[in-house]
Amino acid sequence: MSLLDAQGISKSFGGIHALDTCSISVEQGTITGLIGPNGSGKTTLFNVMTGYERVDSGQVRFKEQAITNAPPDKVFRLGIGRTFQLTRIFPRLTVLENMHVAVQRNSLKGLFSRWSSAHEQKSALELLDFVGLTSLKNLPAGNLSYGQKKLLEFAFVLIAEPQVILLDEPAGGINPTMINYLTERIRTLNQRGVTFLIVEHNMEFVMGLCDKVMVMHRGAKIAEGSPAEVRANPAVLEAYLGD
Amino acid sequence: MRMFKETSLIFSRQLDRVETLGRYTIVRRYGKMVGLLALLAIAIVFPLVFSNSEETGIALFALIFAAAVTGWNIFSGYTGYISLGHAAYFGTGAYALAIICQVWNVPAGYTPFLFVPVAGLVAAVLAVPVGWIALRVRRHTFVVITIAIFFIFQLLAINLTEQYTTTGSLNLPIPVDWTGDFYNIPFYYASLILLLVAIAISWWVRNSKYGLGLLAIRDDEDRALGLGVKTVPSKLAAFVISAFIVGMAGAIWAYYVFVIYPPTAFDATFDVAFVLMAFLGGVGTISGPILGALLLESTQQYFTSVLTQNGGYYLIAYGALFLAVILLLPRGIIPTLSERWARYQVSRHQSLQEHDAIVTALPTPDGVAENVERKEGINL
Prior knowledge:
A: Rossmann fold; globular; B: globular
């Protein structure tokens, strides 16, 4: 079953067609890779699907329900989490406080409650443990290293238990050990039923992790299939190597 | 200085409850409470010890401003949206109380104090459409918009009060029964109560999930939105709460000065004063704005009463101080001091594990700190 799909999405910035009737579909329970040369529209597609950009035309659906142009907070509350290419955490909040920002689904209740219930505190600590940041929980998040920030962002998206997580270049700029660590974490979560859509330039990472890979070029999807199929596809090679 | 530890400690303390309570933790927990109670006792006893009307006058102005800056901080400190126009709500509260007293023939005495929350409410209601419009923009544009709105309010005060007065000035009832040094006492305690209310609201916001959302907005608004924080209603609510407190401060101020004019009630130097006081003490903290207001307002009142013949000089001193604060204490007194204190503690107790909370104010131990310089901390 298709969990999250985008149908015929077009998005222009001035005269540039960032997305040109682009359609993708993410199956439930998969780890789907989204690759393509720089400027092919991957991040714009993420922005459109998570409510950060409005579409010019087309439709985004989550569990058969149209969420086109829904604001980011609503998209998140429906169960779609994302991370950013340039990691975005809350630098002046502590690591633990960062974890609790996402647990805000009921804002009226939030007015009259402490930061978190016992259950939420427990899951925040468990997740910090899951990404290995427990010892840093009281540090201001701005003091973390780049890789640690990536893990933190990953963890605080997880706390709201999204059904699908969009990762924008999770392996970018972090060391191989950390990449292996992250791969392992994504696999574990996937086994628990979380669906992933991952934009990444690190081919080794994508090919090793994803069940299915989609390739974008000039704002549209040009290929789709298993990692092996995509690697062998002449259109993909052409897109990467130029024409 | 214990009381100035990070509020996040309150939170982490709950988590650590199961762990053994070291002597250190006990001192921290009860030391803070005792310290706060001592401060409250000093505030209550102050006018009995320093009963001279000049002294109580200075003190009550300091309290009024401490309450107003605490109100300002709930919006600007927590969300990072710096408002340079909150004197608009101070003036609104002042005019609201004056008009209420005039229209309903409120007698002098304690009764006008009962209408202070109503005046605050008027300011809060006016802040709803203003905030709704102003909060559509961010950062510098927002600052400029707030200044513009402030001057619109000032003009409105001149023009809309025509039915009550020809010059825009309004009189409030004067409590003639309160004679001599006693005159300031009711105002002093009313201001103190207002300050306590403001602190309670500030503390409550800071420690609620809602307040965490505001702090997240300060750090990265779009990221917060993408994590389900309802940023627009959150910001507007903070703006309105803030206007409510500042409006009440303006109302008490108006009753005390008993005759108000548009340029005195809607005073642009108040705009600057709120920001300066908050930055001096530590913007975004609970105690910082109070400390800043108590220091600055009492100093200013002292100088204007002592140096009446050259009272204008305090404005120059204000400007100089503003520069000094930005250059030397960009994060304010409280965050700077609490960090120094934390460093001192760490150097005394090397065991970081036992006092891991202290490390909050320090860069990472493994030297990966990219952003050692924390601006505007989140200390209590």
